[in-house]
Amino acid sequence: MSQGAELRSRIKEVMVDELMLDFAPDEIDNETPIFGAEGLGLDSVDALQLVVAIEKHFGFKIGDAEKAKNVLKSVETIARAIEAA
Description:
By secondary structure, the chain is an all-alpha fold. It has helices at about 5-20, 45-60, 65-70, 75-85. The protein has 4 helices and no strands.
């Protein structure tokens, strides 16, 4: 497994564990929207928990709400932000 694939897999594991999601990490596609009915269906409370979890597990701090909107779109956008940091 490549380093990029491992990061994306780990992000999914963190999301499932920290947000107590009702599905397995491998059921989440990298491009699936995190919020909204067409995606994972997470809400603003989940967003706060996810921001904290990302900082705790990956050392990546999301500084403001505008940045969070862009980063927290999907597993792929989170992984790209972590990789670019």
